[in-house]
Specification:
Elements: H1 2-11, H2 22-29, H3 34-41, E1 51-58, H4 67-82, E2 85-86, E3 95-96, E4 99-100, E5 103-113, H5 117-130, E6 135-137, H6 142-153, E7 159-161, H7 169-172, E8 179-180, H8 186-189, H9 193-200, E9 205-211, H10 214-229, E10 233-240, H11 248-251, E11 260-264, H12 269-281, E12 289-291, H13 298-308, E13 312-315, H14 324-343, H15 348-366, H16 374-383, E14 397-398, E15 404-414, E16 424-434, E17 469-470
Parallel strand pairs: 1-5, 1-6, 6-7, 7-8, 9-10, 9-11, 11-12
Antiparallel strand pairs: 2-3, 4-5, 13-15, 14-15, 15-16, 16-17
Helix pairs in contact: 1-14, 4-14, 4-15, 5-6, 9-10, 12-13, 15-16
Length: 475
Amino acid sequence: MFRRSHVALVAACAAFAACGSESASNDAAGGGNSSNAAEEGGGGGGGGEPIKIGFLSDCEGAFGSFFEPTASGANLALIKYAGAKPSGEKPTDGVTGATIAGKPVEIVGYGCADDTADKAIEETRRLMEQEDADILIGPLSGDEGIAVANYAKEHPDKTFVNGIAGAQDSTLKVQAPNFFRFHPDGAQWSAGLGDYAYNKLGWKKAAIIGDDYSFPYTSLAGFVAEYCAIGGQVTKRVWAPLGEEDYSSYISQIPKDVDGLYVGIGGSGLISFIKQYEEQRGRVDTERMLGNVFWDDPLVLKEVGKSLVGGVTSAMTAADSDSPDVAAYIQGLKDNYGDEIAGAGPSVFTYGYYTGMAALITALEAVGGDVADQSKLQAELAKVTLTGDKAPWGDVKLDSNRQAISNVFLKKIVEDTTGDGVPDVQTFAQVNDVDQTFNGAFSADTPAPDRENPKCEAGEAPPWVGQAEDVSFSK
């Protein structure tokens, strides 16, 4: 049921970038309705100076359609744990009545970026310097995350909680002591797929293809590190510009003598890629093609899902989970924002902002809402472990670089079982305690993931190889 609602949400935008309309951009640039709501309601029922939080996501560009879902995730945590109430039908209308440790909470603005570092920093400066936010939650996309982490390093008196940006460098390389990520990075999301390709599908040689920027570099790096460590060979890497419409020249570069292809193309580009791949190479053989976190996105399944039946992907959420905590999380989104937003609940975009805000609230409670000396808040954030309904898909703790260690699920796209004509997703395995280093393959001293790195080298496998637990949810 989650998938059908999410399809309606995204399809209403017509394409991934369509929700980044001029009106949405203008509202976001002015803080939406949230600042006014906070001022009229005092931000909450408490007294004293408010805790000022800036929100940053994408309302334009390849991921613009996730602006409202990401806001809903952050808002839901405030609703559940800080007593907030929605200010309107849209999540970016803001919230009122939030208090933490008796102090009012004010969302100073819902910042609008466009998946570029320059725009993300422009909005970060507006929120942190002009609107005087104490804390930023965001951004969404990989290059944005690296830029914001570097900005954080220059502003130690402010605190930054990542939204869902998944580039590895944001925590592993930049190591800003005031930047925290309460979800796996892109490489961690790929954990288990190298093992699956080599040991289950029998791939000995593989190629990879992805968008040409930091998140796919990280996402595919996780596959390469794991797959090559246990004996696989990656013989070709193909990179296409983010948002490319004509993939014909890139498809022609994919060698035909490999056992399989790992795909890291995201956004609306993945739909174009699959359609054009079948035009050039024939029907997708899902025994010879795997995909990253975008593979089971509802819009992708609606448009090209029948071509992907049998295909496998991985991520930190599982829409078919039968956990009561997952059900309560989805119900919270439905109660406050309706079926369409609730349908986006299992999206990593929504969930990353939820866990980030839940962690922030937990740490703020521990310091009595004190943001005058943010070193205290940052020390508490580093100690937060999310459990139960604050992390419904599995516990989240941080390593010494303030990067999440958590679980990842392996999922297979299966034939439609609901009668809506759209394939479903079935979770079949769980990889536990995935850390960012992949058993030493990644460190502050290793080359950052890029077009050529990591190198494909045999070595000691990550500890989860061969240890994935079978999962069979009841839904």
